[in-house]
Here is the input.
Amino acid sequence: MRKNRPSRTAPKIGAAILYVAQDPRYAALLPPGLTVETERLLLAAGALKPWHLKLARSRAYRWFVEGMIRKMAPGHLVYLALRKRFVQDEVESALAAGASQVLIIGAGMDTLCLRLAPEHPDVTFVEVDHPASQGMKREAVDRISADRPNLHFVPADLEAASLPEALEAVAGWDAAAPTVAVAEGLLEYLSPETVDRVFEGVAKATAPGSRFLFCYAHVDETGRVKIGKATRFHSAAMKMYGEGLHWGIREGELEAFLEARGYRTLGPPERIDLSARYLESVGLAGPLGGIELVTLAETASP
Here is the structure.
């Protein structure tokens, strides 16, 4: 992201959710309230206009978009939508298991905390995000939402500040409390050094055994992030936005990467297979992306 400018990617993710929600095959798989709250937030932020919604329902427009996605990253929009379901399911699972804090790193225009904070008044919810992006979101939230005393917004540029330092601004944040942290569609945009600091920061700011959901991409033999069938085109487009991709993991090296940083994955594999977990049970199938993967890890227990 370019300094002092809100992320361009964050509203696009929200728009993708609304696009997928127009398809009845997938709408029923989305978390309750996600579509309504995403639409309200994007409209309030000025990142979405009513004509965008009308366009998303247009048969000709959907034919065009789906043709482009099939060529470049089949199933990617559906993946983005199901990723929201996965994150919410796993956050609620962590809360049921005793987590008392939810930390969203690089929240963008996500509405998870807005929707869950009123349902869990005894849980501390925190969003840490770049000041420019969070400023746009907070203005929108102030326009549409009632006060949520257990939801805290912390502006921080993680390329310059550590996560534990940022969380010092949250009264009552407890580094010894079981926590579920989320970095959804974020780490790929950070430098490798900053990614390491994020993993270190989550471990320091939460109790041992806390959960960390994050997304990652694979890199090729040259270290370049692989982005579907049109890697060079996507890479050039992201650089034009000022939001290039800088970090990824080589195939087969996730376990070693996590172990070196004091984490382990939580299985079984079907738990993080979004197609097996959500699509196959309702008779749907097909590729999901090819750009990004999501996984669930746990900080080492003493």
About this structure: The CA atoms of residues 44 and 140 lie 5 Å apart. The longest strand covers residues 293-299. The chain has one domain: 9-299.
